[in-house]
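Cross-posting from the chemistry board since nobody answered there.

I work mostly on the small-molecule side, so proteins are not my area. We synthesized zinc ion and want a rough idea of how it might sit in this target. Sequence and SMILES are below. Is it possible to get a predicted 3D structure of the two together?
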Amino acid sequence: MTAFLALLLATAAPANRPMVELTRLDCGSATIKDFNAFFSDTLEYPAGPRRITDSCYLVRHMGHYLLWDTGFPAALKGKPNDMGALVVTIDKTIPEQLALLGLKPSDITVVGISHMHGDHVGQAADFPAAKLLVGKADFEQTVGPKDPFGPWRGANAKLQLEHGGDIDVFGDGKVIALNMPGHTPDHMALLVKLASGNVLLTGDLYHATEARTLKGVPPFNTSRADTLASMDRFERLARHYNAKVIIQHEPRDIAKLPTFPAAAR
Ligand SMILES: [Zn+2]
């Protein structure tokens, strides 16, 4: 047995608690002023404004926690923020929601980032004690004065970079960060194997239900061909694992998981 596995077993939850739980966090929302032009490079979506969610997820694996995506920055909290094509609001920060679960930021073992866009990395730096799991090119392309990954740039940073392959987050196959490039160079999705069934979190492989139905690609996208290939792989995995698919920005998918603070098990 590896030392890592021994550590996991030593911190295992009591027998009446499932090994893995998944909790949806609210990391803000945005109203897109022109949903079709913003999200469809073929202009196939409904016209007019539409509200999207910005969701983050807490995965408890025995005694360890993975925070999947970190939403908009906490500095945007409490007021509508007009950013041109969209208006962003955030009601509660991630640490505030963790506190309601009895957790501190330092309890987060791993911060996993689907991709480098600002609505997914906003609060990452609020968890400097965690290991950062992110796509290699996404990590390298975010260097700058407003670097969201600043705490992990040092020589001894706790950092795991994905490139070209999946990552078994806790070493037992229950939680897997999936290589799904295209939207950004090293974009990832997440597979969570719960006792009640498998769940796939899309990252931003899809931004809305229409994107999944139509295989729609947004104008802001690194590689259209890679995105379509990732969608093909994602749908095959969804079938193979008979997974519940949650599009992270889709308000219609909120009800697929229990309402916070309840967790899916
Ligand atoms: Zn996004």
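Reply from a structural biologist on the board:
Welcome over. Reading the output above for you: The CA atoms of residues 183 and 234 lie 13 Å apart. The pocket of zinc ion is lined by residues 117, 119-120, 204, 249 (CB under 6 Å). Happy to explain the token format if needed.
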